[in-house]
Design brief:
- The longest helix has 16 residues.
- The chain is built from eight helices and four strands.
- Helix content is about 40%, strand content about 15%.
- The protein has about 200 residues and is α/β, with parallel strands linked by helices.
- It has a four-stranded parallel β-sheet.
- The protein has a single domain, classed as Rossmann fold (3-Layer(aba) Sandwich).
- It starts with a helix and ends with a strand.
- The structure holds zinc ion (2 copies).
- The site of one zinc ion has 7 residues, from helix 2.
- The site of one zinc ion (ZN) has 6 residues, from loops.
Amino acid sequence: MGILDFIFPKRCINCKKLGDYLCPNCFSYLSFDNRSFCMICKKQSENGLTHKLCKDKYTIDGCFSALKYNYMAKKMIFQFKNKPYLTDLQNFLTELFYESLIQNEGFIELVKRRNWVFVASPLSKEIFRKRGYNQAEILARSLGKKLKIQTIDINKINRTFRNVFIVDDVVKTGRTLQKASNDLKRRGSRRVYGLILAGS
Ligand SMILES: [Zn+2]
Ligand SMILES: [Zn+2]
């Protein structure tokens, strides 16, 4: 627990009840029942794989998400983006991310079979300058620690790192992920998947 957690006591981000970042009642509005979909056509696909017909050489191979991007997930991630110094909130989100992923058989199979590295989904230069940090990088590093996967600067990826997960907090259109996948594959990554905390 960091010193700032004492200065800012934990309150439910939705109903403001003291105690935790999400009280049990508000927690029940989170949806882990996340349908797997293809990043390109957005239609259902097994294990979040990109359909063969939707793919070319540089297309992202698939995407896993932990939560549905609903009202409650949105509120929670908004707090995280604006108060990254709350280490308990970071830990709470990492825990949700982790718990949901390790119950996803497709993800576990993939992770077991090969060596992977994490990169954070890139932020535009303007936003990074304004915010001073990349929230996706915070998530990548903390999730990486739990899964024992190293997080590497996306600009340092070359063909020695063949399999890459791009970690992000929220994905709506998937355009940023697809662009990052394209760059990574052109630089020699063999497999590129998205790993997102909340997806719509
Ligand atoms: Zn609440
Ligand atoms: Zn598709």
